Amino acid sequence: MPRPLVATIDIAALRHNLHIAKQHAPGAKVWAVLKANAYGHGLERGMRGFADADGLALIEPEAAAALRELGWRKRLLLLEGIFDTQDLETAVRHGVDLVVHNEEQLLMLEGSSSSTPLDVYLKVNSGMNRLGFVPSACRAMYARLQALPHVRSIAFMTHFANADHPDHSGLPLSEQLRRFELATAGLPGERTLSNSAGDLLHPDCAADWVRPGVMLYGSSPADASASAFDLRAAMQLESEIIGVQHIAAGESVGYGSQFIAEQAMTIGVVACGYADGYPRHAPTGTPVIVDGTRTRVLGRVSMDMMSVDLNPVENARVGSKVELWGSNLSIDEVAHAAGTLGYELMCAVAPRVKMIER
């Protein structure tokens, strides 16, 4: 019998969340973001779930090639562009669009002897200071790209740092928009600005394309819950109780004796640990559902197991069903309790976790 830890991927939820992204930007086309193995959900599953997207955006050139082999015929975009000339050959061979965000990438394009036309996005660093050309350099970079016979079209991109908090004192959204407009004013080409938070909260920024990512998988990019945006969980992580202990007041649970019982308790041991992708730093009190009843993690998460409080759960036993996150327990709530983000949890699910779909 296999270990009872299973991640179930809901393809219908992926489709639904894409529909929500489209509703918030009705005049824009959609790059559905599939980086990091579709945020841990599986490349092929993401491709099927986002079949109605106008294009798929990702980081890994080899994953772009795999999507072509899986049958994707619409546009693909490499969000970090190429890393070497071999990546450029892959992009040319498979018809993949490229982001150009540094001069080294531009030099590789200028040194290419390919006659196959490429579509590129010139990335503007509008203040996030991660990737892209500063606004004052963009026109020169645009001119160099325009001079290349194998560059068919040039579009423009930037990335919002604070779309979930647009008035952030460090870098307001309005300032990023001002810098982007300064860099691109008068230059022809499509624009893409909005990530998930931009798509959901700032419809005026939709431009020609939006680039939803984490929202497509049912996690909220903002303070509001996913359900507030009608997003549905696309991943359900479930396991079972594999051991039960009855402890007295004053006894401890787990490595480091991080939890000490104040009263007699029944403790359940769940087949899931940090080697499966559950956060080791999740503290006592992190929510979990056992046999439909909400309860809490106790003590330190170990490599293969974690302990939960069974006192609130009537008739709990070995074999009781455990929901670690999913349709009844938001991944964002679990992440918040653990001091992280839903992004990290879904991307961290380990290869040894059995993954199925419905």
CA(first)-CA(last) distance: 21 Å
Tally of helical runs: 11
Structural class: alpha/beta
Low-confidence stretches: none
The number of E-state strands comes to 18
Mean of pLDDT? 97
The helix fraction, in percent, is 25-40%
Overall 3D geometry?
elongated
**Proportion of residues in extended strands:** 15-25%
Order of helices and strands: EHEHHEHEHEHEHEHEHEEEEEEEEEHHE
Oligomer: single chain
Report the biggest beta sheet as strand number plus sense, adding barrel if it closes: 8 strands, parallel
Rg over CA atoms, rounded to whole Å, is 23 Å
* Order of the strands making up the biggest sheet: 8-7-6-5-4-3-2-9
How would you describe this protein?
It contains 11 helices and 18 strands. Helix content is 27%, strand content 23%. The strands form 3 sheets. Strands 8-7-6-5-4-3-2-9 form an 8-stranded parallel β-sheet. The relative contact order is 0.14. α1 (11-24) crosses α3 (43-49). With 358 residues, it is α/β, with parallel strands linked by helices. The protein has helices at residues 11-24, 35-39, 43-49, 61-70, 85-94, 103-110, 135-146, 173-184, 196-201, 331-337, 342-348, and strands at residues 6-9, 29-33, 55-58, 75-78, 97-100, 118-123, 151-157, 191-192, 209-210, 235-247, 252-253, 259-260, 265-270, 287-290, 293-298, 306-309, 321-325, 354-357. The protein starts with 5 loop residues before the first strand and ends with a strand. α7 links the parallel β6 (118-123) and β7.
